[in-house]
Amino acid sequence: MGRNRLRLLLIATTFVLVAGAGAFAVRHATNPGAADEAPPAATGVESPLDVTTVELAAAETPSVSTDTPAVSLLVELNGGVFRISGVVPDAATAARLVASARLTYGPTVAHSIDIDPNLTAPEWLDGAAGAISLLPMITEGTIYAAGDPVRLTGVAPNQQYLTAYEAAVARTLGVSNIETSISISELHSPVFNARRQDGVLVLSGVMPTDLIRDYILGGAIAVYGAENVVDETTTDEQLHTAYWMYTMPHVFELFEPFTDYELHIENGVTSGSLNEGANFESGSAVLDESTEGVLTVAISMLKRDPSLGLLVEGHTDNVGSRAFNQQLSEARAQAAVDYVLAGEIPGNRVTAVGFGEDRPVATNWTRDGRAANRRIILIFEPFGSDS
Fold this sequence. Notes:
By secondary structure, this protein is of the alpha/beta class. The protein is built from 8 helices and 16 strands.
C-alpha cells in the first residue's frame, strides 16, 4: 500500500485518544480573575515535557490584551501542548473553538477565552476553528489574529513545510495579509513504523531524541506489556520533533483491541491498516460508539493536514439481495461521511462509495465471516489541488 494512503478497517474498540466532553473554561471581560484551565497529564505514560510549564520564548509570543476593543485570538503549540486564549463576542464561539482544539489536540489543551458581547465578529473568526488545527504542520509556533495582519511565529523544518502552512492559514482564515516570523530548522523528517502481529508490537524507525524514543516506547509498554513490545528504533539529532509523537501513547491505547495492525509515518504522512472485524449489525447502517471514536480520530487527522482527502468504502455480507446490499453499503459509507462532515470538514474533501457484497474479506458461510464482511474502510489520500 502506498505511504500516502491510510486504510483503516474499522472494528470494535474503545476510543481514548480525544479527551471526553466537559465544560470549557471561559471568562467574561468583566471578570478577568476567573481561573484558566491547564492541560491534564497525558494518559498512560509520563510526558517527556512538563505540560504545565512549557512556554515559547516571551519575545516570540504576542500578548493578548482584554482591554483591546476588538476580537483577538492567540493559539500556541509547543512541546506537544496546545494553548488558546483571546477575546470573542459570545460563548457559542468560545465553545466552538475549544471543541475544535480538543478534537485536534486531545488532552493536552489549556484555554482561557474572555467574552465581550460588545465586540463585532470579524470575518476571519468563522475560519478560526479550522486554523487552530493547522499548527502541527510545523514543529511549533503561534497564530495571533487581532486585526490586520495575522501574525505567525514559530519553527518549521523546511521551506516546503512553511509555504504549505502559510497558504493553509491564509485560506482557512480567508485573509491575504499575513506577517510571518518563522525560522527554518533545516532538520529532516522522522520515520516511524508500528507493526503488531499475533499480539506482538514491533517499533522501528528513527526518532529525534532518546527522550521522545523512550516516551513512545513507554507508551507502548504501558498498553501491551514489555514482553509484547520489540523496540528497533534509533535516534538522529538531525530530525525534527513532530506533534504526532506526543499522541502515540494514546494511539496505542486506541488500537489495543487489534492484534493485527500496521502504521507508517514518513514526511508527516500516515499510512497503514487495521485488520479485524466489523462495526455493523446485520442489515444496519447505524454507527456504534467505537466506530464514531475512530471516525473522530479521522476528523482530527483531516483538520491537522489540509492536504488529505478521505474516501469511505462501505461493504456488506451476502445476506439479502444484491440490490439491497448495494444500497446498504452506500448507506454505511454515507453514515460515516456524515459524521465526518459534522466535524466541520469541507464536503469536497470527503467521499462515500459502496461496494455491496462484492469485496468480502472472509467467507459468508459462517457467522464470524459475515461479521467480518460488514465493514467500512477509510482511505486517506492527497486532496487534489483543484478541489
